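Write out this protein's structure.
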Amino acid sequence: MSRVGKKPIPIVDGVTVDVNGPMVTVKGSKGELSREFPHFISITVDDGQVQVDRKNESKPARSMHGTTRALIANMIEGVANGFSKTLLIEGVGFEGVMKGRDIVLSLGYSHDITYTPPEGVDIVVNNNTEVVCSGTDCQKVGQAAAQIRSYYKAEPYKGKGVRYSDETIRRKVGKAVA
């Protein structure tokens, strides 16, 4: 039995969870999320908790048991509090500027990079060097942050590039003069 999958998920105040067959809809103060889950997973709501069980012991059912529980827990957390990722831009002349809903990144290339966030993800730039991606869907927020970071990952010699705020870059020593 999955240790993660058998833990019940507490429903936070102000959040409603509706289960309609394989479709789960979660509504809260920040918005609404719905997702369809495999038919071999059973989802029930009772006593302010969501319980996830598997209908059989097949390999796909066992592998999706804990995953389903984690996805539903993230949906509840997202509509209650939301998710955010903070990126830092470091380097001389490196910056990010908001232009409408898009972010324009100057990362030392011969051209600027324009990134349009997906629906449901909000991006805010502070001091031209701090980018905050936020939204209700954990996967979309993480994907948007990873996409922005992928344009110029922080390099180990000078530390230039885009990195997560909680990421540490292992610095390397440059060439030694003989």
